[in-house]
Structures are given as structure tokens and as C-alpha cells.
Amino acid sequence: MYRSHTCGELRESNIGQEVTLAGWVQTVRKFGSITFIDLRDRYGITQLLFGETLNKELDEQPLGREFVIQVSGNVLERTNKNPNIPTGDIEIEVSKFNILNKAVTPPFTIQDDTDGGDDLRMKFRYLDLRRNAVKRNIELRYAVNRSARNYLHENHFMDIETPFLIKSTPEGARDFVVPSRMNPGQFYALPQSPQTFKQLLMVSGYDRYYQVVKCFRDEDLRADRQPEFTQIDCEMSFVAQEDILQMFEGLIKRIFKDVKGIDYTDEVERMSWNDAMLRYGNDKPDIRFGMELVNLKTVFEGESGNLAAQAIFEASGFKVLTEAETVLAISVPGCSEYTRKQTDELTEWVKRPQIGMNGLIFIKCNADGTFKSSADKFFDEEKLKNLAAICGAKAGDLILILAGREERTRKATSELRLEMGERLGMRRKDEFKLLWVLDFPLFEYAEEENRWVARHHPFTSPKPDHIPVMIGNDPAIKDAANYLSHPYANIKANAYDMVLNGNEIGGGSIRIYQRELQEKMFDALGMSKEEAQHKFGFLLGAFEYGAPPHGGIAFGFDRLCAILGGSESIRDFIAFPKNNSGRDVMLDAPASIDDKQLNELSITLSV
Amino acid sequence: MYRSHTCGELRESNIGQEVTLAGWVQTVRKFGSITFIDLRDRYGITQLLFGETLNKELDEQPLGREFVIQVSGNVLERTNKNPNIPTGDIEIEVSKFNILNKAVTPPFTIQDDTDGGDDLRMKFRYLDLRRNAVKRNIELRYAVNRSARNYLHENHFMDIETPFLIKSTPEGARDFVVPSRMNPGQFYALPQSPQTFKQLLMVSGYDRYYQVVKCFRDEDLRADRQPEFTQIDCEMSFVAQEDILQMFEGLIKRIFKDVKGIDYTDEVERMSWNDAMLRYGNDKPDIRFGMELVNLKTVFEGESGNLAAQAIFEASGFKVLTEAETVLAISVPGCSEYTRKQTDELTEWVKRPQIGMNGLIFIKCNADGTFKSSADKFFDEEKLKNLAAICGAKAGDLILILAGREERTRKATSELRLEMGERLGMRRKDEFKLLWVLDFPLFEYAEEENRWVARHHPFTSPKPDHIPVMIGNDPAIKDAANYLSHPYANIKANAYDMVLNGNEIGGGSIRIYQRELQEKMFDALGMSKEEAQHKFGFLLGAFEYGAPPHGGIAFGFDRLCAILGGSESIRDFIAFPKNNSGRDVMLDAPASIDDKQLNELSITLSV
User: Fold this and answer.
1) Contact predicate B525/B532, CB 8 Å
2) What angle do CA B501, B506, B508 make, to 5 degrees?
3) Fewer CB within 10 A of the terminal residue: chain A, N end or C end?
4) B581–A547 C-beta distance less than 8 A
5) What are the backbone dihedrals phi and psi of residue B516, each rounded to the nearest 5 degrees, phi first?
6) What superkingdom heads the lineage (chains A, B) (predicted)?
């Protein structure tokens, strides 16, 4: 070993000892005939004191930032203690030093507030990883990993590795494929998830499975998506939904405790997908704050909204509202005194293309009991008062109303709610609120193809009560205009999402485990018997040999770490991430390959 | 939950309790009006007793092998206890049962001694995985995984995930590549190992890294090779070879303890590569038994072998021996009474194409002090006695002598030694002997290209003493015939292999961490400056910014598990393995993909 101690280890109790340290030069501070150097390694920073003799040697062999050095010396008590770092009580009086490796000046400073831009830091990721801010993220990631493994182990889950070179069965997302040299013209696919394998493991009787595993999706990358990402992937046999919810809220609570020191003793809230959409306009609501949506008028899932409000709209003749499919409101607390400039800015905000509304109606519920609205023309004081009462607004609130097509309006109101919550400081990074969202629709309607698609994936079971509906009806949609009246439109999935602070951190379902039902599902998704057999014959086969009831969940590990680390960006929590074009700019990958390689793989480029 | 207890859980203390179990029907035994069923799950087997009433129900709803059922009933003390299973004291008097899923008759029996052939079991891997023999292997694998992680965690290693979609830098083995849709004509590669990433993590100051990680090599598959395999991959900073040896023999000892209950207190033996080759003819010797090679005549690494023996060969005029490049002998204990049939069979054994020798010479050292040889024509009693003394043979030994070209003869003698050890029961599956093999040559000579290739990989450092030899000499080989006299031929690597019972289970090295030396290495391997920059520019760059001394090791996880499980085959320890053509016969992968997929990837087939 090049060291007797790490740079984070020495304390007052070590004073008087001869030690050897090795690490990186963080700073060099010369004071006349003596020099102080902060030496850094993964574990901390230790102050080195170079006295008069060595100071001269330092002049001959100057130490720059990020040089790697080894020093020996005596542990002294510091005269000027630094209470901010664990080694702040001591310093090393260096008797000998040795340059292990020099360093040229880094392209950016290795500090929390670095001067390096994003591109530069990605190119020199190995230097960016030295910064404390990034190091803490990677350490947190490991702590989450370790905590999850311990919990799952204690609950009898087994880590079983599933293959990476599998078969392409594109269903929703695109597969990354791998040409096979030994089987010319054939391809492996990289797994989008180990879904079918973990189900097979249940069929094989392994009872409880987990894996912290890389998955791959060849999607057009949106901000903060990665082509390769990590899941905490779990599956259990002989369970119903309730068993899964309890087991895995236990997992997240354990991670809170181990990683953040948080005792999450609150019961985890549960909400149906329907309620989440009605109350928050969103299937992953942030429930750290209220400001719930008031459904004044809607077509959502057969809801009509508030009839009294609609009577007021009719009476006022305000066509924007009478003709709108959906009218939604939120009451923003304490904002009744917003200025014209502020309400104009909010109007601009909802008109941005990302939100896409035509305008914003507001009602100020003034502290003195009067009302003021952007629609004063249509609503007299009495109507405004009634609307405010319908919205549950209190004096001092600012009611914001959006109107338009159902889907867009609901989404926009949800975004507006989150924005106002953010502006009012209601979304605190150090507050964590878990939520189970339940009872999702099993199917979504795909208009272009006039067929059903699986909302979760084709292996998700309907609610037990809904199985006969699924088995007993023809999935074909004869009347496209009225697809909502097809029996399949109301089938709910035995599925659940775990939501943390407005982010979906995990999702799963109780699976189909009967061949007949699985075949019906493939049929419902427009897959022919032959296609189903070609793609999933092994699973259909497995279900014939005694498949147990089973279900599971997968957590987005990158996202979970980011939220626990108080960040919006998963990239900060991945050691070697790719950029938004799927490139690794450090490696400069992907890249062209040799003709020899192409020939061996029996493929040619058609670029 | 479908159960109150597992099938492995109930004991005498549970007698009288009402319980619910769920699992698979292992066997059905009818005795007149009652029926016994063994119910199986991952945790064990519990006997169920169906009394008179239920027996009738069973007639209406017969339960077959591998049916999945749920039963409720009372825990009874068995009259006929089974001491062979942990639940053998009790049985369940079933009051209610419920078929959760039926099963058709499996294509082979789910038992230790199954009647299923290899192909059938691979196709129905999900059924094969139910067999106890396979389940034990998968459980052992998890135990090894868990033990390794715990040890590494306690020693401050961090699990840091490295990317799977990287850059193709074929060097030795072929890469699997992945066409990039978003970057037409460009490809990612799947990692052959995380080698460069773990080195970058050391440059980034992470100090101690590990990962249990999938790696990929597109090689022509030999028996028991897999295109995807798992490594326990580790790296440490500020270490010399001795630190690594101690840390990682600690890891393996911990695994022995946790997984096998073995206290491996012996010091782990160490041997130079040179000694291993001379004494065992093999760089991964099985040291559970002696029977070492006697180098009667050789050209290995400048050794001449035993001169007295060569004098005897000359005097006898036995051209097979006088003209051979190498003559090697082993003394097989207690086999002097081998019959003609037995020695003939051994002769045939060495003449098989896999061994490839022309013949075998033996000397029987009879118990009465006389000698008898297949070369009596050339050697009188006195010469045989002297040769036996040179070979260190005792009365009762059978000396086996092989002669021919150095490389083939050494390999053949090594194989013969292992074969004789096997036949004599000296290679016990329950005996474990570790060995470090050290001081490998840094380079191997590639005749076709008349250049050096890296024996380990291009990042392995020479022994510190040998660095000046490497830096100070031109790697070009001017005189191909005398490549052995080139200074590079004698450079030893700062590398180490861990050998367990004759299998290499891990290997690693102290790495190059200076840009100049790394460039010299690439130069020595015939890589141009441009090529080195294109392939490994990021690493050369990283070495400029303060790279610490570092080194590491990678263990072949599949192989390690197989040896600990007493098996020769890694396939038995992989949940979903591929066959020797790299196919997953269960999935039927690889497979053809859609033209749409090919088009999106901008590739066409040239099959």
C-alpha cells in the first residue's frame, strides 16, 4: 500500500503518529517559507504542512493542482482548527514527499461550483467524477443499491441473472439489436426489461426474484432519457396486489431510512387512477401540496363536472366556457393580490407551445370579500362568489381557470398546478411523499389502428372481477366512434405505480398466469396466433406446466436516486451517461466499425 | 398471500395449527380411501393427507404432477416420520383445496435423476430449473454473489455501474456490436469487460470499485464457453501486487466460509509462471496432488533439463529421446502392476488427436526392486534404475515418459498428469486448493505478424524493474528467428492469476498509469499513434490529469460457482444459458428481424 491512512481518517487521537498518505493536490497555499497543501482522496481532505526545508524542494519540483503525491510525516495538532471537515483538528508535518504522477491543468476546476460547461464536463467525465457534487451522487446510488439488496435479501428474494442477448419482440418501444456472426442474418435483441424471464422464474418455482439490472430502449431520446438505464426488478409468487404493495412500500421506506435517515412512518396513500386524473390531472400526482383540480365541466371517464358551475356558464353566455369540452380550476392560496403584470405572465405561460392553451381566466378572491376577474364582462359579483364557493376558494386565493379539449386542458391544468406549487415553495426537496396509484385501465385505444394497446404491458392481468369481461367479449372494435362503450374500455388492470413527489419511481402488476387469458390478451392487441407463438411461444408453453399466480414491480433506479439526491436529472447519478443524442462523448461512441467486422456479421450499410 | 407458510417451514412446534400452503404437486400416492400428496415449493416439501371426504373430490378433480394448488388444513404429527426432510415430522390434514393452475404432463421428470436429455431440458429450461439439482446451483450462485458483495462492501469497495453501449476496440477477442439508429452507419459495442472504465474510475479517485457484471465476447464457442458471461470485477488505487493478492485471497476465503462452510486457513501458495510450466506443464496447475513433471530434456525458457538423463539417452542410442526437443516424465504412484492392457490403453490415450503424441514410454518400478520398461531394448536394469532415481520414483510407481516438440509434449504431459490424478482419485471435489501464479511474461510472440501481443491485455504494467527495459528498447523484432533474444521477450508482467483446483478463476494486474508507458505499450503491439488515439484517446488523456497507481482483478463468476458446486460445466450454474452455437433454444434466439427494423438501422443483410 502506498498509504497507512486515507485522507479522511486522521483525528486528534492520531496526533504524534508517523503516517503515509497518498492522494490528489486540491490546493497549494504558499506563505513565505512554508506551504500548505490540501490533499484529497475519496474519503476526505487532509492538510499537509511543508516546512522550510521541504519548501525549497517544492520550488524545484512544484506541485500543481491534481498532481498525485505520496507524503510521509508526523500528525500535528492544528493551531487553526477547521470544524467544517472531519480531519480539521490535525495536519501532517511532511518529512518526505514523492510525486506519483503529474497532472496538466484540468480544463475546468474540480470544485462544487465548477467553471466547466456541460459538454466539457461530459467529454472529461473522469475529471467531472472527481467533483464532490458528483461523487456524492455516485455514493448515494451505491447506498440505495446496497439498501435495496439488503432488504430484498432479508425478505428471501434471490438475485438471479437473466440473459442480455435475447430475442427481438418489439412491443411498444424499439429494441436494440445485435447481429449474430455465427447465425448469419439473425439478430439478438438487448432486453427492454427482464419481464418474461422473471415470469419464467416464477413458473420455475423461484418464488422471489430480484435484480439490479441494465435495460435498453432504442427510443428517440427526450431530455433526461438514457438508451441504457437500470431497474430494480422484482417478482413474487403466490401474491395478490395487497402483498406487493406492502412488500415494496417496505422497500422504499427501508431505503429512506438507510440512505436519508428518514423514518417514513406515515401510511402510504393510495389513489385510483381515476381519482388521480380527476383531482390532479395526472397519473403521478405530487401530493406534497393540495391545490386540487376542480372539475367544473368535463368529459373525463363519464364525469360531467359541476352542474352548478355549468349553469352559471350558460347564464353568462361566455362561449369559451359553454363550448369547451372541459373547464378546470385551481385555487392558488395567497395570490389574490397578483398584479396585472403577474397575471399576464401566467397567461403567457399557459400559452407557450409546451402547454398549448389559448388563454387563462382568473378570479381574484380579495381579502376584503370582493372579487375581481378577467371575465368580469361575463360574471357579476354574485356569479364570481358562487364560482369561488364551488372551487372551495378562500379569501386571498387566486382562482385559475383553463378551458378547452379534455386531454390538453387536463394536462395543462396539472402543469399549471405544479408550476404554482413550485413558485410558492410547496415542493420541498427534503420532503418525501409516497403514493400508490391503482386501478389503471388495462387498455388504451389506438385510434390509427382502431385497436387496443396494453397500457402497461401485455402480461398485466385484469382485476379478477374483470377477467370474465375480457374472456367473454370480442376485442374487435366495430364502432370506432364509440370505442368507449366497448366492454374492454372499462376493464381495469391489476396494476400499480409508486409515485414519489410527482415522479413515477416504480410500476408493476399482477400477471396473467393462464394460457387462455394470455392468448386472449395477445388477440386483443391485434397479434395473430402465429405471431404470438413466434414471439412468446415459450411463455405460453410455460403456462401449461403449472404456472403459479405471481406479480412484481420494477423501480427506475436512476430516477429514484436522482429524486433522493434532490435532483431533476438522472444523468448526474450515472457514472458514464450518454448525451441526448445517445452519444458517449468521452468515448466518442457510437463509431464506425471496420469492413472486416461488417463482413463477418454478414451486414452492409445502407447509409 | 396465497399461503400462511412455505412448504419448507412447518415443524413439530406447529402441530395443531391451521395453515394454508401453496405449491406444486410433486407426487400423488393413493392408498384406498386416502391420498398422500407431496407439495413442493422453493423452500421444501410438505406431505399432505387427503382423508376420505376429500378423496372423493380428488376423484372428480384429479391432481396431476406439477399442478399448482392451494390447500388449507391442520398440522398433524406424522405417525411415520421422515428424518430425511426438515418437515418430515408433520403432515397437513387437508380440509380444503383449490387448483390454482393445471399442468400437462412435463416432457421429462422433475427429479434429480431426470429422464430428459440435454436438448429437451434446454428447450424447457423453465422446467429444468425446477429440479433440485439445478435449483441448488442457482442458490449457490446467489450465495457466492452475496458473500462477495458483503466482503467487498466491508472493505470499502463501491459497486459502480459502467456502460454497456460502448465503443468497439477489438483487441484480441471480437466485439458484439449494436447498430445505432440515431447515428446511421455507426455502432456501439458491448463490453468485453469494464477494463478501461474501472481504470477511469481510479483516475476519478473512487479508490475501490467492484461490479458483478455481464461481459460479452463474440468468439467461436468452445465447449463450456458462453457469449455472455459474468465477472466479479474489481479495481483498487494506491496498491502494489502484494496488496491485491492479500485482499482477494481474503475474498475467496470469505466465499469458502460463507458458501461452503470451509475455513481455508492454509496460506495460499504462490508460484511463478515459469515454475508452474516446468513443474506442471501448465499455467493453472492443480496442486491438490503431486506427480510433478520431471524435465529430463527441454528447451523451455532456456532450461536444459536433467543432464544425467540425457547422458543415459545418448548412451542408449534411443533416437526418440535423443532427437526429441523435450522429454518429460511423471511418476504415477502405485501403478507399477498395470497390465499390458492398461499400458496399451494409456498409450492409445496419449495418441488421441486431442493429445497428439506419437507414443508413450513407461518404466514399471516393481515392488521387488526390479524394473520393467516398454524400452527394455534400449535401457538395461542399471539405466532404468538410474532413470527412476532421477524421476524420484519409488518402488510401486509407474513412470510415464513423453517425448517430442516442446509445446505439445509439455501440454500432453500436463494432461496425462491430470488424467492419472483423476483416475487415482487425487482430484477430490470436496478439496479446494488455491494458488497464485505470478510473473507471467508481459508479451507473447505472434509469428504470423512478427510482432508482440499482450499476454494479459494492453493495460498490464511490466514489473517495476522491467519498465526501463520496455521504455529503452525498440519493440520491433528485426531477427524473427531469434525473437527470444529480443529484450522484450524477458519482460515479466506485474500480473497474477488465481487458480483453484486446476482452473483459472481470476486474473488481473497492476496497471500502467503513465501516458508514456501506455503509448510505448500500444507501439509495442503494433498500434499506430493515430489508432491508439482513436481507440483509447480517452484513457491516454485521463493519464495526463493525475492518474494514481492502481491495479485490479476479475473473477470468472460462472466458473467459480461451477467449481464450488463441484461441476465441470458453467451452463449448469446459469439460469438461462446458451448452447454451444450461441443459441437460446428456449427463446429460439437469435432470430430474423423485420425489414422495418433493418431499414431504421440503415443496414441490409448480405447473407
Assistant:
1) no
2) 140
3) C
4) no
5) -60, -45
6) Bacteria
Closest CA to B155 of B222, B208, B114, B192: B208
The pTM for the full model equals 0.96
Q: Look up residue B128 and give its three cell numbers.
A: 429444468
CATH of region A134-260+567-597, choose from 3.30.930.10, 1.10.10.10, 3.30.70.2190, 3.90.1150.10: 3.30.930.10
Instruction: Give span(s): CATH 2.40.50.140, chain A.
Output: 12-101
Please report, for residues B170, B269, B335, the alpha-carbon distance to residue B288 in angstroms, rounded to integers and kept in the order given. 37, 11, 19
| The one-letter amino acid at A218 | D
Looking at residue B273, its pLDDT comes to 97
Dihedrals phi, psi of A28, to nearest 5 degrees: -125, 120
Contacts of B221 in chain A (CB under 8 A): 182
Residue A48: closest CA among A27, A64, A66: A27
Does the domain spanning B289-423 belong to CATH 3.40.50.720?
A: no
Residues in Cβ contact with A530 at an 8 Å cutoff, skipping those fewer than 6 apart = none
Residue B460 pairs with which residues in a beta bridge?
B511
Question: With contact defined as beta carbons under 8 Å apart, do A512 and A519 qualify?
Answer: no
Closest CA to B229 of A573, A163, A271: A163
d(CA A36, CA B410): 60
Q: Say if residues B143 and B258 touch (Cβ distance below 8 Å).
A: yes
> Which ipTM was obtained for this model?
0.95
Q: Cell numbers of A463, please?
A: 382485476
Q: How many CB pairs under 8 A join A and B?
A: 359
- Residue A445 β-bridge partners: A452
Q: Could you report how far apart the first and last alpha carbons of chain B are, in Å?
A: 53
**Minimum-distance CB partner of B546 among A24, A541, A605:** A24
Output the CA–CA distances (angstroms, integers) from residue B607 to A182, A183, A603, B220, B603, in the order listed. 12, 10, 8, 19, 12
Residues of chain B with CATH 3.30.930.10: 134-260+567-597
For cell 387512477, what's the residue? A273
Give A-chain residues touching B166 at CB under 8 angstroms: 584, 587, 589
On whether B249 is known to bind a ligand per the annotation, the reply is: no
**Smallest Cα distance from B353 to chain A, Å:** 26
- In A51-147 the beta strands, taken as DSSP E runs, fall at 68-77, 90-101
Annotated binding-site residue? A511: yes
pLDDT score recorded for residue B98: 96
Residue at grid coordinates 427481438:
A168
What distance in Å separates residue A586's CA from the closest CA in chain B?
Answer: 6
CA–CA separation, B389 and B392 (whole Å): 5
Cis peptide before B468 (omega within 30 of 0): no
Give the residue carrying C-alpha cell 466539457.
A120
- Distance, in Å, from the CA atom of B154 to the CA atom of B553, rounded to the nearest integer, reads 18
- Those residues whose C-beta lies under 8 Å from the C-beta of residue A127, and which sit 6 or more positions away, are A106, A107, A108, A110, A121, B204, B545
Domain with CATH 3.30.1360.30 in chain A: 289-423
Of A374, A272, A283, give the one whose Cα is nearest residue A321. A374
Phi, psi of A422, rounded to the nearest 5 degrees: -60, -50
**How does residue B445 score in pLDDT terms, banded at 50, 70 and 90?**
very high
DSSP code at position A446: E
CA gap A358, A32 in Å, rounded: 68
- CA–CA separation, B195 vs B224, rounded Å? 23
Q: What is the pLDDT of residues B511-568, one digit of tens each?
A: 999 999 999 999 999 999 999 999 999 999 999 999 999 999 999 999 999 999 999 8
A377 CB neighbour count, 10 Å cutoff: 9
Q: Which chain B residue lies closest to A107 (C-alpha atoms)?
A: B545
Cβ proximity of B234 and B552 under 8 Å: yes
Q: For residues A273 and A436, what is the distance between their CA atoms, to the nearest angstrom?
A: 9
Tell the CATH superfamily of the B12-101 domain.
Answer: Nucleic acid-binding proteins (2.40.50.140)
Residue B559 marked ligand-binding: yes
> Whole-angstrom Cα distance, residue A385 to residue A406?
25
